[in-house]
Amino acid sequence: MIPGPHDTRASRAGDIAPLLVDIPTTCRLTGKSRTYIYDHLDQFRSALIGRTRMIDYRSIREWVDRQLAEAGHAPATTPPAPTITPDLIAAAEAVAMSPRAMGDARALALRVLDLAGQDGEAAR
């Protein structure tokens, strides 16, 4: 079980990792992967920041890894790269060539075109 941000026990604890997750139980009950657990740790960490003296995030991830290994769970695999479809390329071209596109939107569109092997330089 993952405590919510209202759980003040974690804010008083020096080592919050055991309070965050019972890894074997969470994996068994939910059938979720290490990535799922890490996503929830990210959410919990974001909600808790500022309430604790310090959160040693690396030690939390190491603790999660140890718990998963002891429970016999395989390490999480890297998710597959997203597929760049013709529709995505067309949308990226439209954004990249638009005189109104600025900043991050334009940069993202150009990156998609570069990844797709399209000529992002022509759109610049």
Summary tags:
124 residues; mainly alpha; 8 helices; elongated; disordered N terminus; Putative DNA-binding transcriptional regulator AlpA; DNA binding
Q: What would your notes on this structure say?
A:
- The structure is a single chain.
- This protein has 124 residues and is mostly helical.
- The protein has 2 domains: 62 residues, no CATH class; 38 residues, no CATH class.
- The chain is 60% helix and 0% strand.
- It is built from 8 helices and no strands.
- α4 packs antiparallel against α5 and α6 crosses α7.
- One of its GO terms (molecular function) is DNA binding.
Structural class: mainly alpha
Low-confidence stretches: 1-21, 50-54
Please describe the biggest sheet, giving its number of strands, its sense, and whether it closes into a barrel: none
Give the strand content: under 5%
State the total count of DSSP E strands.
0
* Large-scale geometry: elongated
Over the alpha carbons, how many angstroms does the gyration radius reach?
Answer: 21 Å
| Count of discrete structural domains | 2
Number of helices, where a helix is a run of at least 4 consecutive DSSP H or I residues: 8
Summed over residues and divided by their number, the pLDDT gives a mean of 62
Distance between the termini: 50 Å
Order of helices and strands: HHHHHHHH
Helix content: 55-70%
GO molecular function: DNA binding
Keywords: DNA-binding
Organism: Roseospira goensis
Protein name: Putative DNA-binding transcriptional regulator AlpA
